[in-house]
């Protein structure tokens, strides 16, 4: 329920941005900070809160995070200005970081080792349900009530999650007296991720080559390099870099990052292709976009359960390959492509996404000792957020630049400007998809590299902790 709430929050808020711009009489660039502030704060705090959950207990951090998240939703519904709303969204993001960062660890610990994939498959299913419910519920509430309803209507659900967490989650055995936090690593990780994601989030407004963007992104990389140096010398680091010496962990983590960098061309650009290119209505577009999540709801728990029986790494590789194949087939989309053909490709994409994530996450979590589960869970969440942010910036830049190039070429060939503008959409979409295909192939290769070799006795030569 907590994961569903966090996932729904992103999609239900984004659909309200045009309404917020009209209500507060502000430009969309200002209103976008309702989303940007949330992403910045939550992403920069996930590694820290994940580490703290390892130190003082995951139930404490998760429950406290859901309390802050729920109070933040109530405060957002009472905001009197756009600046108040942005501030309350940042506060809400603190709670989101606390709950999301240790959610995967809680599920991993709750299931026996032989059923970890099954548990993470169910968790992935809740993500898909959240993505589907967000736009549907948000559209209904915005039509029948007002923008405040997208926040206050969910407060009782958040309160219910808090109560369930307090009653059902296993009691923490750790005490506050044992907690020793790496202060230098905490500051460096937060500052580095903040600068990196802020730079990425501003690409659309300033351009990828802008000195401001390059400056923030360079600062983010340099600070994160310093963070790595600090972690190598820390007595109890936020991220145990020794984990990356494990080939299984390192390959699975790298494939996860590439997978999420490659996903945004579908998430960001598919609506442009469907609505502005093929001329589908918003409702038709929404229904088609929901196909992937609907299939993922079915494929995720199946994939998770199968991974416990036939092996995690092979299923991860299959999921990445199916996703990449779907992106490749999208290169055939044009202005005359029929809905049935689009649906078939989206079904394949849903199978790929649902097949990749549970076994991949299970591989990562299975490579970590119990005391590091919170840190590993936070690393997964951080990689996902940074990967999606980076992928959206790259996909948006490629699409915008290539659309202008294709439109100019079509005009030079005698096409009318309006016709050229429409015809350039699928062509630019194809160019952005090439990035997804290359990254997807990388994810497939890394997933295969994470397969454990067996010694002569037939047992893995890399022991899982």
Instruction: Supply Rg.
Output: 22 Å
Computed structural class: mainly alpha
Given as residue ranges, the uncertain stretches (5+ residues, pLDDT < 50) are 454-465
- What's the domain count? 3
Description:
The chain is mainly alpha-helical. It is 79% helix and 0% strand. It folds into 3 domains: 1-171, Growth Hormone, Chain: A, CATH 1.20.1250.20; 183-235; 239-451, MFS general substrate transporter like domains (Growth Hormone, Chain: A, Up-down Bundle), CATH 1.20.1250.20. The chain has helices at residues 2-14, 17-23, 28-31, 33-56, 58-77, 82-110, 116-144, 149-152, 155-168, 183-201, 203-206, 211-233, 247-262, 264-277, 282-310, 312-330, 339-366, 373-412, 417-449. 50% of the residues are buried. Residues 454-465 have low confidence and may be disordered.
Question: Which labels suit this protein?
Answer:
465 residues; mainly alpha; Growth Hormone, Chain: A; 19 helices; 79% helix; 0% strand
Describe how the helices and strands are arranged.
Elements: H1 2-14, H2 17-23, H3 28-31, H4 33-56, H5 58-77, H6 82-110, H7 116-144, H8 149-152, H9 155-168, H10 183-201, H11 203-206, H12 211-233, H13 247-262, H14 264-277, H15 282-310, H16 312-330, H17 339-366, H18 373-412, H19 417-449
Helix pairs in contact: 1-7, 4-5, 4-6, 4-10, 4-18, 5-6, 5-9, 6-7, 6-18, 7-15, 7-17, 10-12, 10-18, 13-17, 13-18, 13-19, 14-15, 14-18, 14-19, 15-16, 15-17, 16-17, 16-19, 18-19
Concise synopsis of the structure shown:
By secondary structure, the protein is an all-alpha fold. Helices cover 79% and strands 0% of the residues.
């Amino acid at each position: 329920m907590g994961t569903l709430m966090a996932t729904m929050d992103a999609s239900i808020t984004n659909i309200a941005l045009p309404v917020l711009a009209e209500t507060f009489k502000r430009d969309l660039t200002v209103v976008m900070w309702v989303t940007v502030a949330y992403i910045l704060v939550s992403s920069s705090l996930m590694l820290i809160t994940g580490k703290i959950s390892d130190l003082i207990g995951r139930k404490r951090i998760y429950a406290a995070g859901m309390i802050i998240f729920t109070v933040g939703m109530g405060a957002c519904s009472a905001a009197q200005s756009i600046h108040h709303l942005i501030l309350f969204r940042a506060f809400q993001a603190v709670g989101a970081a606390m709950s999301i960062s240790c959610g995967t660890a809680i599920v991993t610990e709750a299931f026996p080792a032989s059923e970890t994939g099954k548990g993470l498959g169910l968790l992935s299913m809740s993500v898909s349900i959240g993505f589907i419910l967000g736009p549907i519920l948000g559209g209904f509430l915005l039509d029948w009530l007002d923008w405040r309803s997208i926040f206050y209507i969910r407060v009782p659900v958040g309160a219910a999650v808090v109560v369930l967490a307090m009653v059902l989650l296993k009691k923490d055995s750790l005490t506050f007296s044992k907690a020793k936090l790496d202060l230098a690593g905490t500051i460096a990780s937060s500052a580095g991720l903040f600068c990196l994601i802020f730079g990425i989030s501003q690409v659309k407004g300033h351009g990828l080559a802008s000195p401001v963007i390059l400056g923030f992104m360079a600062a983010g990389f340099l600070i994160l390099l310093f963070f790595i140096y600090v972690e190598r010398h820390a007595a109890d680091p936020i991220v145990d870099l020794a984990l990356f010496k494990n080939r299984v962990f390192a390959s699975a983590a790298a494939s996860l990052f590439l997978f999420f960098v490659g996903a945004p061309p579908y998430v960001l650009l598919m609506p442009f292709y469907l609505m502005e290119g093929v001329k589908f209505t918003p409702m038709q577009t929404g229904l088609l976009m929901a196909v992937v999540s609907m299939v993922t709801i079915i494929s995720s728990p199946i994939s998770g359960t199968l991974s416990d029986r036939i092996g995690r790494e092979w299923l991860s590789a299959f999921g990445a390959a199916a996703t990449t194949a779907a992106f490749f087939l999208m290169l055939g989309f044009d202005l005359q492509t029929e809905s049935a053909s689009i649906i078939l490709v989206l079904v394949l994409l849903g199978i790929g996404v649902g097949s990749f994530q549970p076994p991949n996450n299970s591989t990562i979590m299975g490579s970590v000792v119990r005391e590091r589960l919170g840190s590993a869970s936070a690393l997964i969440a951080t990689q996902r957020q940074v990967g999606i942010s980076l992928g959206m910036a790259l996909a948006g830049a490629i699409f915008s630049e290539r659309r202008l190039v294709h439109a100019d070429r079509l005009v030079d060939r005698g096409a009318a400007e309006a016709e050229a503008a429409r015809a350039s959409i699928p062509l630019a979409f194809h160019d952005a998809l090439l990035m997804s295909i290359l990254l997807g192939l990388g994810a497939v290769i890394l997933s295969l590299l994470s397969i454990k070799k067996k010694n002569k006795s037939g047992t893995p030569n890399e022991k899982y902790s």
